[in-house]
Amino acid sequence: NHEGERMRRFCAQHKLPGMLKVARNMCEREGCNTLASYNLEGQGKGKFCWKHKAKDMVDVVAKNRKKCEHAGCRTIPSFNFKGERLRRFCSQHKMPGMVVIFKNKPECEHAGCNV
Fold first, then answer.
1. What does the DSSP 8-state code read for residue 48?
2. Inter-residue contact 103 to 85 (CB < 8 Å)
3. Phi, psi (5° rounding) for residue 89?
4. Is residue 43 domain-resident?
5. Is residue 88 part of a domain?
6. Does a structural domain hold residue 42?
7. pLDDT score of 63
8. How confident is the model at residue 45 (pLDDT cuts 50, 70, 90)?
9. In this structure, what is the dihedral angle of CA atoms 69, 48, 13, 6, given to the nearest 10 degrees?
C-alpha cells in the first residue's frame, strides 16, 4: 500500500507504482520497509530487520515460527489451498493448486488474482 497505510490491498505482482510492503512489525529504522525479526534475547516482538539489528540482538521471531510440513524441511511455510487460514508448505514443497496464505489479509484487489 502507500506509505503510512497499514491495510494490505494488492499482492507483489499487482501492486501499483509507489506502493510499499506493509505489515505490523516493520523495522523501526526510519525509511526501512523490511519485517522486523531482531530484538534483545528474551524480548517479545522484533524491532529491527537483519540489516539494522544491533550486535547483541537475536532473531526473536524464528524460534516461534511454524515449519513446512514436508519431512525434514525447516523453511517457514506460506502456502495452503485457497480459503484455508493455516500455512502448511513452503514454495518448494507446495502442492498443485496451493496459493500464498496471508494471516488476516484480504485478497488482492486486482481482478482475477487469487493471492
1. B
2. yes
3. -130, 155
4. no
5. yes
6. no
7. 65
8. confident
9. 110
The count of structural domains within the chain is: 1
CA distance 35 to 47: 9
- Let me know if residue 96 belongs to a domain: yes
75 neighbors 64 (Cβ within 8 angstroms): no
Domain that holds residue 80: 65-115
Are the beta carbons of 108 and 11 closer than 8 angstroms?
A: yes
Give the dihedral sign, CA 2/16/81/65. Answer: negative
Residues 6+ apart with CB under 8 A from 101: 78, 79, 80, 84, 85, 86, 87
Q: In this structure, which amino acid lies at residue 37?
A: S
pLDDT tens track for 60-84: 877 667 788 999 887 788 899 988 8
